[in-house]
């Protein structure tokens, strides 16, 4: 800091910035704040307050206080909090260790002290390991900040018109700038969920609505009794773990086959869903040079060519998505595994480009002899579609075979076309995000077709569990602890019991307990957070209330923010000193998960831009005038 900077800073009172939410988003934003502070802050004193009932760093989801049996859904090599040479941003790059590097280096002693086993780069570690990494990153960021940092382990309940943040304890913090970096929000039950809870209570049944599994009370799911579970994704996997190993069971392995040894405290889990199958296991291999590439058919230019205004997802975007995924699959198959094809890639690609369904179907039949090498999105999405099993035992045998085949395929690089589809999904998501931001999709299409159907397909194919978890699922099935209930699972109450029926499997399942194993649909208008509810009621924040074309309510949308992440008020004006980031905010990048190293994560770019904007707002008045004059 120069003498001139010191003189300027003396002329300005200290600035105060309050972050509501102390999870990974705030950590990443403060890392970028520290990176550009020397350039932009001008030596002004800054007080930073972080308000969160959970410890800063991990926040609620990545807190240390959770079961060590719960795993991350990413490999250690796929997670970083720090920028690297791939990130395109205005602020300086300040390298730091990704999770895999940290585990093998500075984190080794920390993990040993915490009683956690080290994890290799291809491992899916316990969430507690990520909690330790985030706590370490938080400490490093705090050391680098040219500011005092105070954490408050409580909830913010109000933001006054004169910008005082009121905490649950009654403490008040006068703020120059407030950043709401809230994670996944608790919400009021839907009308359907409230009705289920009332009917279950009246019948003496146990009903567990959608929720974050680590926070759900499972004590009323009794040993040996049937439990109907609807949902076959990550929430179910967590539930399965907590109700088996979490109740004292354990696994043995002999000749490569996993066996489960029950403790006797486990309930019997009947699990089903719309698809009736678990999410695909995460890919267990990498292929050099294989990474997301720009889309070929679903491009901004292609959408612009469809005309101005709102597009129809089903008729205009969905065919381009199908074509994009199909191209990615077959390009990899033909170029990396030509011995399994009969045509040259240019010949096949020419037919694909023309996209005449009947001609293309004939080309696939002739050029790709093995059905296991073919790609049809609808068949991938619904592998049990059109099948009916009169015998439940037979259905369970078939589904166990489907899971076994998936496990073998997801570790076999000879099926690298699956990796190409995964990368194409990431690229498609980027284009859809732009289309939504630019208003090219109706609210109905966004909620029903993108946020529900498309996101569901993406999660099913690309965001499934570690392979080991599906091996455990099969072991639990062999032990009689997990049973497969079937697709299109419908649940009702009959004669004071829950009754589940599947469109694909004969016979019904009766139980005293029913669990909806999924996260609740985000809806900021239904959020229980008192701070948000107050700001929405007063008009300081705005959110869409979404309706279908026929007038049916689609619930609440996301909080509105401008391109600089500043809050948009109910009257359409922009709040100059209230910033919004996180999964419940429109245009908030990188909210779906951690950035991967060397991937130019969108969250890094946005964090950097917002951090630099905050610094410019906080800089001394003299420095601002100098910049304006120049």
UniProtKB/TrEMBL annotation:
SUPFAM superfamilies: FAD/NAD(P)-binding domain (SSF51905). InterPro entries: FAD/NAD-bd_sf, HpyO/CreE_NAD-binding, L-asp_N-monooxygenase_NS-form. Residues 18-184 form the FAD-dependent urate hydroxylase HpyO/Asp monooxygenase CreE-like FAD/NAD(P)-binding domain. It comes from the Bacteria. This is Intein.
